[in-house]
Amino acid sequence: MDCLFCNIIAKKFPAVFVYEDEKVAVFLDINPTNPGHTLVVPKAHFENIFDVTEETFCDVAAATKRLAPAIRAAVGADGINLMVNNGRAAGQLIPHIHLHIVPRLMADGFRHWKGAPYKNGEIEQVAEKIRAVLA
User: Fold this and answer.
1) What are residue 115's phi and psi, to 5 degrees?
2) Is 112 a catalytic residue?
3) What is the mean pLDDT of residues 75-104?
4) What percent of the chain has pLDDT over 90?
5) Mean pLDDT computed over every residue of the chain
6) pLDDT tens-place string over residues 12-65
7) Can you give the chain as a three-state secondary structure string?
8) CA-based torsion, 113, 57, 31, 70: positive or negative
């Protein structure tokens, strides 16, 4: 398989693991936003949120819940960001679903995206479109 994360999980490529069980592998990001920036990766290959099973995503969430407090304590972070990028437009570089645990410091300079308010009546239209797809 030519998936980078599948090769890391199979120990064909190096990584610094901080946790592993039968369902997930957790290793440090090699280009961290801050020290302790960690990736939680399911061992089963799924490209993104659009094709991952609910069970597998729950495995990722459970590992994240366990690891985030440990990472925060270990690196002395003031907070934690949890992020999953889905698709190239959202910044996903590796086509294997993974969750970033990003330790945050008050003065780290990491910027969040800029929001903009909805136009008049637009919020209701968007909500209705979402509810229609769910139905």
Assistant:
1) -95, 165
2) no
3) 97
4) 94
5) 96
6) 999 999 999 999 999 999 999 999 999 999 999 999 999 999 999 999 999 999
7) CCCHHHHHHCCCCCCCEEEECCCEEEEECCCCCCCCCEEEEECCCCCCCCCCCHHHHHHHHHHHHHHHHHHHHHHCCCEEEEECCCCHHHCCCCCCCCEEEEEECCCCCCCCCCCCCCCCCHHHHHHHHHHHHHC
8) positive
Q: Hey, what are 19's tokens?
A: 């946790």
Question: Which entry of 37, 96, 98, 100 is annotated as an active-site residue?
Answer: 98
- The C-alpha atoms of residue 60 and residue 41 are separated, in whole angstroms, by 7
Give the residue carrying structure tokens 């030519």: 2
Q: Give every strand in the sheet of 17-20, ordered side by side.
A: 17-20, 24-28, 38-42, 99-104, 79-83
